[in-house]
Amino acid sequence: MSTGNMNLTLKVWRQKNNNTKGALVDYKLSGISPDMSFLEMFDVLNEQLINTGEEPVVFDHDCREGICGMCSMFINGRPHGPKDLVTTCQLHMRSFKDGDTIVVEPWRAAAFPVVKDLTVDRSAFDRVISAGGFISVNTGNAQDANNLPIPKMQADAAFEAAACIGCGACVATCKNASAMLFVSAKISQLALLPQGQPERYRRVQSMVAQMDAEGFGNCTNTGACEAECPKGISLENIARMNRDFATAKFISEETV
Amino acid sequence: MSDINSNIPEGELTSKWTKYKSSVPLVNPSNKRTIEVIIVGSGLAGASAAATLAEMGYKVKCFCFQDSPRRAHSIAAQGGINAAKNYQNDGDSVYRLFYDTIKGGDYRAREANVHRLAEVSANIIDQCVAQGVPLAREYGGLLDNRSFGGTQVQRTFYAAGQTGQQLLLGAYSALERQIGMGKVEMYTRHEMLEVVKIDGKARGIIARNLITGEIERHFGHAVVLGTGGYGNVFYLSTNAMGSNVTAAWKAHKQGAYFANPCYTQIHPTCIPVSGDHQSKLTLMSESLRNDGRIWVPKKKDDNRKASEIPEDERDYYLERRYPAFGNLVPRDVASRAAKERCDAGYGVGTSKLAVYLDFKANTERYGRIEASKAGNHNPDKETCMRLGTAVIKEKYGNLFDMYAQITGENPYETPMRIYPAVHYTMGGLWVDYNLMTSVPGLYCTGEANFSDHGANRLGASALMQGLADGYFVLPYTIGSYLSKEISVKAISTDHPAFVEAEERAVGILNTLINIKGTKSVDHFHKRLGHIMWEKCGMARNEQGLKEAIEEIRALRAEFWSNVRVPGVANELNTELEKAGRVADFIELGELMCIDALNRNESCGGHFREEYQTEEGEALRDDENYAYVAAWEFKEGVNFDLHKEELKFENIKVAQRSYK
To answer: Which of A49, A142, A145, B461 is most solvent-facing, going by the fewest CB within 10 Å?
Structure first.
């Protein structure tokens, strides 16, 4: 039941490390099953490389169920490949045809330097969160959870923004390598909730400042990020962030 | 019969923890600033502990192998988190959560730990909501609950099918806040390779920077392992690809006892294996059993499509066998029942190793309610299905999408095909009431320890335990140890113990690189997984376990003489990382079989075919096996058994029944 009959040509980006130049290398694969995930197809490639004494292709992956946000392949010019609302690990080979040539590259952005082959460094995202993507509440200070009713619509909207997996597809697909969708999703989640109000305007200023410091580009409203986001994070979040950022400049007494 | 001390405080069960908290020695703020704590792992147990200890004033270093602490595998937990809030007014209480957990664990967990877990459960929900975790709410703005297996109350809080993600992002944001303040030093893409012991106490770790391959020494007054479970010993499991036992196993080799390794949880509702290429299995949340009915055809080898099998030719075997709990029996019971039907020839799908999980009846029921709300009191079937599908979509949309992606089938139209798969490990490093292992100063939290779930974990209790340990238990208990360490100055990492530990770690890496054999790491991992699944999986017997032990020993010898690890040690080398992990899994696999062979009874997830009731239920032997099996590592991969007797003073031990 597992033996497949798809033959593929892969053009995979190989780069030893951040100090060396990379290049696309061709590989032929056969016997691929349409039931394999895209990463399982890469497992087959790597097994083949190891058996012939070559070094396997290094790529980030972990949960393989579309939630950890670690997988990050730029496939035929699209982050996470040809299907909408799907991460690379959930993309299956039935989305390709026998005889296809598939080009696989890493995320490309100045703020995401290549580490090796298809693996990039996304620690800039963590630094943006640590600049303000939280509510300042220490453990042990919380009141009873139901003392704070939150309208369902509002809670659902916050959840939708919070569904971001931090994969970086938005940055990879943006011609400006902007991180606005990622940053605004976290800002929106907290801005939509009553718990997030006390730090709302301070937060937006700190996080935007860190985003700029990391070298992410500006937003020019092309909307590619929303189109390619595997979790369907909406552009509305960017609008909300911009509104809050502007408001912060007027009303906030603290400048961060 | 106990020869190890679990340090359970004296007194009434219900007041032990309160008394402990108010009498535990404290560390004053200025001393906290000079005390360093190392935390390995950044999932719910690790991140919550790291954030909380830093808030309290300790100097914290936190390590994870992923590129960001937000990606730890807690992120993938789907269904929910239990808490004894009784928001639904359905009779829930701390005692009931305690009782359900002990019973669910088939009377193989420690009463005092479980009661403490139930006590702090409510605080977790409060804490997470305060952090801005968007848990599901009702129209009145209050928190919503759903049902999970093994309980008759609704105490499970959730965020669609992504509860773990939302809770972990909450803990991660608390952690990032402390990182931003400079109170936690975060080491991503680092793997712990050794525990460093000085004068018998844990004093640090050896870690490998996975990007540069550099070996680093880190000192800590105490070390906490929140490194998750070891389900990947089976190769195929619902764990992430990187989930591993290495940190816990290295600690075990340095003297930390490993408890109940044979207690593994096989989750009943996973997407079945589709072929040899499969790299991992995907869970379909237990919450689906709220609204899905499990069935197989009444006729053997029935090859008709599900939709062509009429209602009276379907066997809803869980509802038939367990009328009181029906589709919501605990996981071990549901898994065994599915295996029984498939082994008897009633399985479905091409492999015949699957059963149906069918949402049709409840979709229609929801549709009827929705139609009623809109004033249509006599809706036709099509209207009901259309409206009901929208309700199902809101509740489980992401799970249904995932199923469609993986199988290529539309679960809104045809029933899901599901089969049990390895999901969680109840066993882990032995810890006392303080969550300290048998090595002083070495703590273990979350799935990596053995403490709260006995022989079977109830659904939605893993998130509860991880966060309970990290937010509310460890921060207190570690203080009792650290209060005695305030005069210890930071020890230089030039200390011979660090040098020696580093040599051990480097020695293993070099050996692996230099074997230059002919088979890949995955080749060995798959073979190990096959042995474990066939002989130490859902059902075990004496003969199979004895064979497994021999086969694993042979596999270990072959691995160390014929594994091929390409590349070098001083750069990013994912094959080298995997090789080290698989080497540890092979040793652990042997211990799991030894433990399963030792335990001549069936309990929870440990089912020995020789010990079952006439109806095929697990048959415990309380007289001889009401103990925790804590194994000590001995030179040359040998193990000595220590026993911690389990005393049940507040609960009547009985044959578990869900009928």
So the answer is: A49
**Diameter of chain B by CA atoms?**
81
Interface contact flag, A35 B277, Cβ < 8 Å: yes
Question: Is it the case that residue A241 has pLDDT exceeding 70?
Answer: yes
Decide if B279 and A196 are in contact by the 8 Å CB cutoff: no
The nearest CA of chain B is from the CA of A233 a distance in Å of 14
E strand or H helix that includes residue B215? strand B215-219
Query: Three-state DSSP class for B274?
Result: coil
Q: Phi and psi at residue A169, in whole multiples of 5°?
A: -60, -35
Contact list in B for residue A54 (CB cut-off 8 A) is 566
Residue range B202-226: mean pLDDT, rounded: 98
Active site residue B331: yes
* B267: nearest Cα among B346, B205, B329, B345: B329
Residues of chain B numbered 609-648 and touching chain A (CB < 8 Å): none
pLDDT tens figures, A34-57: 999 999 999 999 999 999 999 999
Under 8 Å between Cβ of B157 and B145: yes
CA B625 to chain centre: 23
CA-to-CA distance for A22 and A20, rounded, in angstroms?
7
Measured between alpha carbons, how far is A191 from A146 in angstroms, rounded to an integer?
19
Q: What is the largest CA-CA distance in chain A?
A: 66
**pLDDT, tens digit, for every residue of B275-334?**
889 999 999 999 899 899 999 999 999 999 999 999 999 999 999 999 999 999 999 999
Question: Are the beta carbons of B8 and B431 closer than 8 angstroms?
Answer: no
Q: Which of A54, A134, A207 to mutate to test the interface with B (most CBs of B within 10 A)?
A: A134
Residue type, B465: Q
Q: Is B506 exposed, middle or buried (0-12, 13-18, 19+ CB in 10 A)?
A: middle
Query: Of chain A residues 47-76, which have a CB less than 8 A from chain B?
Result: 47, 49-51, 53-56, 58, 60-70
Rounded to a whole number, what is the distance in Å from the CA of B174 to chain A's nearest CA?
A: 6
- B436 sits in the region (left: phi over 0; alpha: psi -120 to 50; else beta) called beta
What residue in B sits closest to A134 (Cα-Cα)?
B173
Judge whether residue B156 has pLDDT over 70.
Answer: yes
- Residue B158 corresponds to which tokens in the numbers above? 């959730």
Q: Cβ contact (<8 Å) for A64 and B571? A: no
List b or e across B633-645, with b for residues whose CB sees 16 or more CB atoms inside 10 angstroms. Answer: beeeeebeebebe
**C-alpha span between A21 and B505 (Å, rounded):** 32
Mean pLDDT estimate for chain B: 96
- Closest approach of B166 to chain A, Cα-based (Å): 7
Q: What's residue A2's pLDDT?
A: 46
pLDDT at residue B275, as a whole number: 87
pTM: 0.97
State how far the Cα of B437 lies from the Cα of B306, in Å rounded to an integer: 51
Residue A213 contacts B where some CB pair is shorter than 8 Å: no
Average confidence (pLDDT) over A182-206? 97
Least Cα distance to B590 among B628, B624, B632, B546 occurs for: B546
- Length, in residues, of chain B: 659
CA pair distance B588, B250, nearest whole angstrom: 11
Is the distance from CB of B166 to CB of B159 less than 8 angstroms?
yes
pLDDT for residue B549 is more than 80:
yes
What pLDDT does residue A1 have? 40
Contact B522 A43 (CB under 8 A): yes
Residues of B in contact with A58 (CB under 8 A): 572, 574
Min distance B60 CA to chain A CA atoms (Å):
16
* Residue written as token pair 């004296």: B10
Which pLDDT tens digit goes with each residue over B74-132? 999 998 999 999 999 999 999 999 999 999 999 999 999 999 999 999 999 999 999 99
Measured CA to CA, the distance from residue B563 to residue B556 in angstroms comes to 10
